[in-house]
Design a protein that fits this description.
310 residues; alpha+beta; 60% helix
Length: 310
């Protein structure tokens, strides 16, 4: 845990204990056992039994619960590689913050070191909460950039080859965005409640920072909505381009067939084994047939071009 001494303004790293009145503490519990949660949260800090139960059974939607001496907040980070939501439980007290998470969240380690090295970032528990949530929402911006790159890559792939097998990737990304967007929409509501109703552990100056987080997460939610619509448009674009390509193929085959249709008729007519056909006795019948077929072919091509069918 980190301990900030208000009098000396020093930040020290100590084992888990209850902070004194002139101290501010941040306690991290990474993948704790139920016994550890009960001991630290329930026995040491005397949190409400429902709060202890929520910390043991994570798997919850984002929420903000207020108790007599603590506030419990469930928030989600996003894994930087596979964009999977990572749950994080945060307990805010008068002079302490406890974070509980079962999966590794890289940015928490960065915030942990920043609070040790930079002065004035642990003046109260609300300010510690701000730094955690601010970095979490900053990671959402990286998610937006990653999704934008994927959508652009899919667009280029569809334009190069409409028959590319990309529908599976689009549906997978849409399902993931739907899940992430649902969490973020609820977190947006939570941030609105924090910034407008004022936590009892924050100052007026800190409330302004929470409003900034609310604005950032609002932009992220809007971006995710546009991406979801864009992915649906990509599927429609691919289907439309496939249809246009198929129409062009059918048009070409139809033109070729219509050109060969009269030629097939002529060849079939003079291929009949009949005796009384005067053209058969003519010395120039063969080149004449060729001339007629060439004229018909050229005439049909000119006709199609004038009608802009070719």
């Amino acid at each position: 845990m980190l301990i900030y001494n208000v009098a000396t303004q020093n930040v020290t790293k100590e084992t888990v204990r209850i902070p004194r009145e002139d101290e501010i503490a941040w306690i991290r519990l990474f993948n704790p056992t139920p016994e550890e949660v009960k001991h630290v949260v329930g026995e040491m800090f005397e949190c409400h039994p429902l709060l202890v139960e929520d910390c043991i059974n994570m798997k919850q939607r984002p929420k903000l619960d207020r108790y007599k001496n603590q506030t419990f907040l469930t928030f989600y980070a996003v894994h930087p590689n596979d964009m999977v939501p990572l749950e994080m439980g945060i307990i805010i007290g008068s002079n302490y913050v406890i974070t509980i998470y079962k999966d590794d969240i890289p940015f928490l380690e960065e915030v942990y070191h920043e609070l040790q090295q930079i002065e004035g970032r642990m003046v109260n528990s609300g300010y510690i909460l701000y730094h955690i949530l601010d970095r979490c929402v900053d990671e959402y911006t990286l998610l937006v950039d990653h999704v934008e790159d994927q959508v652009e890559r899919m667009e280029r792939g569809i334009f190069r080859n409409p028959y590319i097998r990309i529908s599976k990737d689009i549906f997978r990304l849409k399902r993931l965005l739907h899940q992430v967007r649902r969490y973020m929409a609820e977190e947006k509501t939570i941030m609105g409640a924090i910034s407008h109703q004022n936590l009892p552990y924050t100052s007026k100056e800190t409330d302004l920072y929470f409003i900034d987080i609310y604005d950032h997460i609002s932009r992220v939610v809007d971006s995710l909505d546009s991406f979801r619509e864009g992915l649906t448009g990509l599927l429609e674009l691919q289907m439309g381009m496939k249809s246009d390509r198929m129409n062009e193929i059918m048009k070409t085959l139809t033109i070729v067939s219509s050109i060969f249709l009269p030629l097939t008729f002529i060849v079939g007519l003079y291929g009949m084994n009949l005796k009384n056909m005067p053209e058969m006795q003519w010395a120039y019948s063969y080149p004449a047939v060729w001339a007629v077929m060439i004229i018909i072919t050229i005439g049909l091509i000119i006709f199609y071009k004038r009608r802009k069918w070719m």
